[in-house]
Amino acid sequence: MTQQNPFFSPFETPFQMPPFNLIKNDHFLPAIQQGIIQARIEINEITECLDPPSFENTIEALEGSGTLLDKVSNVLFNLNSAETSDELQKIAQEVSPMITSLNNEIKLNKKLFERVKFVYDLNDSLSGEQQMLLEKTYKSFTRNGAGLDSKSQKRYKEITVALSSMELKFGENVLAETNNYELVIEKLDDLSGLPQDLIDRAKLLAVETQRSDRWIFTLQAPSFIPFMENADQRGLRKQLFIAYMQKAFKGGEYDNRDLVLKIIQLRAEMAELLGYDSYSSYVLEERMAENPTRVQGFLYDLLSKSKDKSIQEVDEVKKFMGTLGINHRLERWDWAYYAEKLRKKKFDFDDELLKPYFKLEKVINGVFKTAEKLFGLTFKINNKIPVYHDAVKAYEVWEKQELKAIFLTDYFPRSGKRSGAWMTSYRGQKKVNGQRIIPQVSIVCNFTPSTENRSSLLKFDEVKTLFHEFGHALHGMLA
């Protein structure tokens, strides 16, 4: 297994990217297990060091530990989000408690924490980067139970291990519900109002599933959103909207309601164990907002400034419906449809007419040009860099003569990809023995895909999402 498992050797690929074509599902578990063994050995070397604790032999050594485990888990959990399967989900469920248990083992290691605290209290003259790492390391212990008594630590371990599985299961259920739903349309009249590219994509999906005389719409954003904005058939809008809102919330195998309650209860108990008033207090301590009071103040301030205007807009839509001879109540499945019609009437603005100006390839070029103007970066596509799906593109990122990062882009929905958009990485940027290790950064989205007759044309909201996620990617490349 050692010779066959690609995780047990340096990746012999361009820029040491994961060799996705060689990695099989049965490689993950043994590699995770070996990574845990190695991490324990590395932690033991730190705690048994006879020299007085220092930044180098404690903080830096701790930061450098767990390399194999990080290498494997980064690939596993990124694939579990972007290109998962039933088998991969089972592996993630099996190893997640193992990894959480190891993290607890490290953060609740009394001898290790004593060394970390010694360096923290020493207040040596450190560089800004070293000081930040020291503070983050120290907080990673105090925020994960290092200061608790043995009974509380035992309960903390139980809670975190349980949460590691529950939180994965929540996402699995939502993905399953998304994939399992189809709105199948048989009559041409039921397509009234829908833009042609949406109809074409619905037909393509029907053809791919051997139902060429139908049109199939899904809960994926590029299908759901334009359907809700444009479908003239109110009953179909209602049907699709309710299906979307009831994902994992209507009984059956994938219902998340009990799971959500358990997650909330365990998070609250964990926060109380750690001495926080609430789980939100625990989370926000490390965020810009800092505490729930500030968040609530912001939200109430936003409410006070926006409520009257929101009421005016709802009333305006209702009056507009009246001018069209519509006398039924304004329901949630009506809002996007009539608000879009009103916007077209008031401003002569049609989001669909903007889409030809936002061809995906042109938007990508615009994003890259922006990065070039602001940061002097250039992006060079490299088809030799391994990727995990044919739709994924890989780029080298250069600043003059210096290679800064590897950048992957994954734009379109798939059954194995969770909803939304996010930036992630397969390897972070760091220096090892004075040598710079370049980051491997990826953005994953769910944009409107292309069809046989039309390239991918983005809605303006999708354009904003691309720039937003690219901003996170720049942080990953340059920080």
Q: Can you tag this structure with a few keywords?
A:
17 helices, alpha+beta, Glutathione S-transferase Yfyf (Class Pi), Chain A, domain 2, single chain, 479 residues
Secondary-structure element string: HHHHHHHEHEHHHHHHHHEEEEEEEH
CATH topology of the largest domain: Glutathione S-transferase Yfyf (Class Pi), Chain A, domain 2
Q: How many H/I helical runs?
A: 17
Average the pLDDT over all residues and give the rounded result. Answer: 96
Low-confidence stretches: none
Q: How many separate domains make up the residues?
A: 4
Give the amount of beta strand, in percent.
Answer: 5-15%
Morphology? globular
- What distance separates the N and C termini? 37 Å
What is the C-alpha radius of gyration, as a whole number of Å? 26 Å
What is the CATH C level class of the largest domain, in words?
Mainly Alpha
